[in-house]
Amino acid sequence: MKPNFFLLLFLLVFSSASIQATSECECGSKHDWHYLQKLNRKFIKNPKYIKQRKKTANGQNPAFVVLSCADSRTPPELIFNQGLGSIFCPRVAGNTAGDQVVDSIAFAVDTWNVTTVVVMGHENCGAVSGALDRLRLNGGVIDPENGVLNAVLIPIEKAIVDAGIDIYGPNALEESTRANIAYAARQLMEKSAIISNAVQNGQIIIVGSVYSLKTGKAKEIFVIDNCIEG
Length: 230
Known about the structure:
Layout: H1 5-24, H2 33-45, H3 47-56, E1 64-68, H4 76-79, E2 87-88, H5 99-111, E3 116-122, H6 126-137, H7 150-162, H8 172-191, H9 193-200, E4 205-211, E5 218-224
């Protein structure tokens, strides 16, 4: 059976019109790609970032590494008032130190003149809350059988259990957040000889910090250097 000529013509015209509408749309809602493109054009034309791109286009040498949560409210560049090229930012839910994160930070420490590595958690972290909920559900026992969230939740659960936190206590979330930050910092040291040697040689320090969603303050809770571990 021969294809319907008018149907093919309609589909061709409709497809062309859709492509043209997509390429020419300027407005869009705040939830679609066109809106992001509009904001990107503003970024491209901003003199501040034109200057920063020109300075960093051929290379980077960030002094700071910030391991932070992927939460949309915790971008390190904004929190620390920095521009392009200043902060190397591995971001992952729950600011956990998995192998990819550790390798990324080790690469940064080994390649550039990094002086400070910050492990920054934040108040009311959904990943930490989720780990607490799962521990409570399982009576305080770490359960590795829970689908794709294992890579995020299990390290946080381990941090909570290792710290001996009362998971039913009134301050369980705050204490667990701090324990998770400390656990991630230890993981950086234990999993990477590059990072641990850099600390021991005085090349870098590792700072643990909790970010306040309300005040915007990144509060120091500990520092690991070649003199003390606290």
